[in-house]
Protein 1
Amino acid sequence: MSAALMRILRRVSPRLQTVRICRSNSHKTEDFLKNEAVERRVRRAMDEQKSITARLERGQMPETDRRALNQTLVEASRVINAFEKTQLALRELAEIQTLICNTSAEDQQMLELLREEHGELSRRVKQLHTELMETLAPAEDLDHRSVVLELASGRTTGGDVCQQFTREIFDMYQGFACYKHWDFELCNYTPADYGGLHHAAVRISGDSVFRWLRFEGGTHRVQRIPEVGLSSRMQRIHTGTATVIVLPQPREVDIHIAAKDLRIDTFRSRGAGGQSVNTTDSAVRVVHLPTGTVAECQQFRSQLKNRDTALRVLRARLYQCIMGQQREQTHSARRQQVGSRCQSDRIRTYNFSQDRVTDHRIGHVTRDIKGFLRGGEDLEDLIRILQEKHDLLKLDDIS
């Protein structure tokens, strides 16, 4: 008898009907465990555990070999333990679901306890699913990096549509950063008319930021009847775009920029007026002469702080360029199936009239567009699906 069922039985004696059995709601995790690549990886871990245990029990070997074998054994055991814990939680969840479906409607106390246990087990299955995926497909080097995220409005006839949408996308990522407890540091922000946004750059730091945002780079398309601006007078659906660029923040050892390769210009901040605007040359533009890459910052009153921020953005852009060249040289099937994440790719459409967000890479549809744009759980769930697709393909390469 499962631990979950024992907890329920200790709290109340149920009156059960044995007429019908309901299926579990955890099909996603069940399908994941039956995935061919997952099964291959788990079988390999079991074979490694059996083989290494036998070798370690046989007798003498050099200490370096023993340490290496022990390390492999630990990794194999982590995979097996995570897999078995997920299986166990799924079985317990199925038992609780069956009890819910077979319990008399009059037994409200029992149903309440069962539903409470079901909710706790569902959250545990979701957590174990994530932990198992991370165990099967270890994190990549860039996954734990901070990022520089840039947004730019599209250039179409309905420019105000693009600019308003770009601000909403900016707010979505700011909301997501708050939801994930990340630091959201503004590097540049160029507002537009009617509360819109031309361009913005932010540095987001925290736990595994690049892993969560790596698939957000690309063209985001909006279809809507504008609420404000010149386009709103026409009262018809307009199409606009916003471009999102996600740059992993390099470490000092990743890229070296020689001082002689930089040209640093200062200019007066541009803005709507007020104190410290157009009064001092505090804004900074940095040009990398060998590549022509440019970064600028006018967000702060301090010229030194603007210079440091512009250099940080420049380093991220140069690093992304280098990484892009390396990815082209090591082109794989995984990139074709998940998406290259090139910034020209149209990755998502936000259709306001149909209250629908569609991710074109995986065909995933989310309703409640305003909830999605708050940058909370809905966005997290979509990104998690993209992560899993990427990790399964990576796992297929590994196994």
Protein 2
Amino acid sequence: MGNLCGSCFKGTADASDLLTPDAETRRRQMAEAAERRQQEQSNRGIKNPESVKRMQNKSQETERLERERAMAGSGGQPNLKWTQG
């Protein structure tokens, strides 16, 4: 009864299976994992992330067009804003 698990620990695996991957492979794997975590975090709580991206792009394009119209409508001069001081 003294040697119950002795047969479990005998070396059936190669020593090459126990070696860790080289530094470049580990670095690449860590970068991929970090990118996946970042993507999951940014999409957290959003059912359709592609729809959100389309809406953001559309709003940015709308803002850009409004700025261009404002610049063109005033002869290249930005609109003046009244401030009360």
Protein 3
Amino acid sequence: MDVNVLMMNSIRTFAQGGQAVLDDLRTADYRALWNNIRHLDFKDVNFSNTNYSFVLLATVIIGFVTMAVVANLTPALEAPGPRQDNWALGEGSEAKHNKDAPPIPPPTEVISLRIYPIKSCRGIEIDSTRLRKMGLTLDRNWMFIGKADRKFLTIRSDPSMTLIDTNIVEGTEGEYKDQQMLEVSIHGTDARVTVPAFPSEQWLKSNTTLSTVEIWEADTDAYEYGPEINKVFCDFFHKDVALVYKGPTARMVAVNGRKELYGTDTPHHFADVMSLQIASEASIKDLNKRLQNKSDSAGKPLTIERFRPNIIVRGRDDHPWEEDTWKRIRITTTLPAEEALYKIDLDAVARCARCQVPNVNPDTAEKHPKEPWDELMHFRRVDTGGVAKYKPCFGMLCIPKNEGKIKVGARLEVLETTDKHLYNTAKFDEL
């Protein structure tokens, strides 16, 4: 049957039924109906004579009348309006200015991203990556140890480590084809080795040995590569060394990020004390201006690479070092090609107290006997907590609260400031 005919028949049937109900309503004896209801004994009811259409319609009408009465008697509630916080980030993620805290600076821009796959070795500048709670992807996942004492090797005692270059390349043959690989090479030579950048558990089991290593007087586990990988590095260091990859046991962040001060345990890889360091271009510019007229300066302007930060922001040239006052910050990355927006909140838990690593020229491995250490000691001893009393500060140590992608050009805004940072002393909740 034609669909239009079916529709017309359905409408006609519905209209006829409605008309029949209306006819019943017009002819009903409501007084008799009410008397019947009052004296109704269901044992004597003959349901075969009941007009169900009338009963149904009467029930509906009584229901609507009841709803209307209740609605008019109930006071109107005010609409809650939009939430002021970001559900994706959780409660307390909004900007907050405390009356006695330093002013919140205007937003700035991420101008560079850097990762250092092998601790103390040369890093890589990248355009984008993923920021995890353990830090930027591939940052400090590896380090070198001495085979004799099992302790980590550091640029502090061996500046030549900056001549070990790292790179991420695509595998081209065999089981590594189309895999991302970590390529490690010795600056100025043809010596190089490659290992999977994201090794599977099975690959590690087949190609490494899980062992115990020591970093900053604490033991942790690590996957140790074999002689075929380590020969190049033994020749470079002129002693037995081994490249190791962080093992499965969590290594917790230290200083102000430890549980007693931050409130929760936060795992990371082989970074010294914390998963992420952010620095400002405005601050390195200010340092270089101060070094310009010193006869014993390092010569050419220093690059930010000497301080080995992960995220570099532009900052304000007329307000250098204002990152000292950060407490909570947010990085917003817009990726139009993916139709994606990432908002990552971070806690700036401590200033970064410095050693003399920035005195090492990353291009030559030569260590200047004085600068920039002396100049930094002159004006950047700004934190009286713990060992920071005796050291200058540059950059901020941060812990990500959530994860997402980050790209050069991202917006960084400060959500809250403080003037109460104390290295390895202050609780985050009390800042």
Protein 4
Amino acid sequence: MSDVITLSVPGISCGDCRQTLKGAVGALPGVSTARVDLEGRTMTAAFERAAMLPGIVAAVEAAGYEIAGYEVGGHMERTAS
């Protein structure tokens, strides 16, 4: 069973951003899909293990993007401070 994370990433603004994030998160072991919505400035990823969550967050931040908050399975996990 997969978990789904939806990250609010305000800095997403172009096709290059989309490709960078999809590549960074989609390459992680256990991630089955990574989608970026430019209009909504969000990224959604389906992943296999809850232990993957810190890796997904780290990959987005390592790609140079700030995360304003995220939800896992429809439950808010983190919001901007």
